[in-house]
Here is the input.
Amino acid sequence: MRRLLLYLLALLAALVIALPLLLMMGNSLKSGAEVQQGNFLAWPTQPSFAAWRQAWRLLASSFAASLMLAMPAVLLSALLAALNGFVLCKYRFRGERWLGLLLVLAFFLPIKVYLLPLAITMARLGLDRSLLLLIAIHVIYSLPLALFFRNHFLSFPDELLHAARLDGASFWRLLWRIVLPLSRPIFVVVLILQFTTIWNEYLFGLVFGPDSARPITAALAQLSAQTETGARAYPLEMAAALLAAAPTLLVYLLAGRHFTRGLIAGAVKG
Here is the structure.
């Protein structure tokens, strides 16, 4: 009986969380005239995917640009975070504590703090807005993710690493053959967090992204200007928002269990 009650409570919570998505889905299938009648809670009388087709036509290039941005930026930032976390955890050097403190402070700084200094630096260096520049910015901005790997590596026995060094393993072979394969749970966590952050990020894409390949969040914000009339195209905007959110939802649906396991595995003392 107790388990049944827990399942019912979990189902109720899932329905409450999914309700906004269901309302957006229902209204995206309506016509503009039906939405303007004001009954947002009703299911469409004549469902149509016209808004979805129009949204995809407007956002297809930005969707591809976001994928071209997110895939290399997520992978590079995760690998760099693993490298830095391993060095911070298992190697001793002057200033390591101060470096760890700076990473902690940088982890909690909002993205707006970096925007103006980055813009001034890019202007002085004469760098034009490009997808490659945007990837580099996201990789640099993700340096504090090394703290996730550092906490995870605290559970690694030093004897294992010492034995590998005695067998002739170099630093890079030690990292690639032993450390990374044993870090899959926390690696998945960082990949999911970084993909969600980069895919949903707006300011960097708006300021540093090229006009020909704007990320999907920047294109989504300008979607309301695409309508020819003064009325808001709510079905179009809701269909576009669902299209933009689909990759992150898919990632969490496919890797949500691994995400939870990775967080638990990384919750070590220190």
Notes: Residues 135 and 160 are 35 Å apart (CA to CA). The longest helix spans residues 50-90. The chain has a mean pLDDT of 81.
